Amino acid sequence: MESMSINRVVRHNKKLPQSRYSPYSKETYLNIEKEMKKDEAKRLGVEFSLFVAEAMFLLSDDLRSMLLFCLWLLKDAGNKGLTAPVVVGRLLCVVLHVFETYIKPKNGVYQADGKSNQWELILESKQKFVFGVREMDRIVSILGKRESSSCEEVKTSDLEHYNLELNKLEETLRSAKEVSEANGFAREAIKSNIVYLWKCSLKHHNLM
């Protein structure tokens, strides 16, 4: 009777075999990390789009200048070697939405016979806008793939660098903040619509 009791104790102290399938596997963590990067990329895409919208308001004193900026952004900055045309597509929707909804002619007449007073400021920001389009294209393209090689990985540092460049763009445009607001730019009012545009498009293309 005593030996049976000892055997029972021994049996109950045996370690259970570890489960082969863990709910917290490396793959699970990688998927969670990727989803977090997608959310951050979407946020950054919205922020960049807001700066595009602000630039349009800054140039709205001269229709020709504003349209030249939009054409350059969509055609020249975004037409070479891009792999995720959805980014340029979103920017096109943003441009059309801002123009049709918010850009109003002064005294009922669009001025399009010269150069905007803020044209030089936008030229100063040219490379930042180029970076915004091209780097977001790269990020969305990689995150949209089910599998990607290590050389195609979107690192957290990439997103941090993109955010830093947006901060620099914001700092440049801040010098003309009073002008953009006087021309009707209301960041929060426009933001909700831009968030919707990005969310719908990326979901439709299964990229985010």
TrEMBL record:
Species of provenance: Arabidopsis thaliana (Mouse-ear cress)
Pfam family, one: DUF1184
InterPro entries: DUF1184 (IPR009568)
Protein name: (thale cress) hypothetical protein
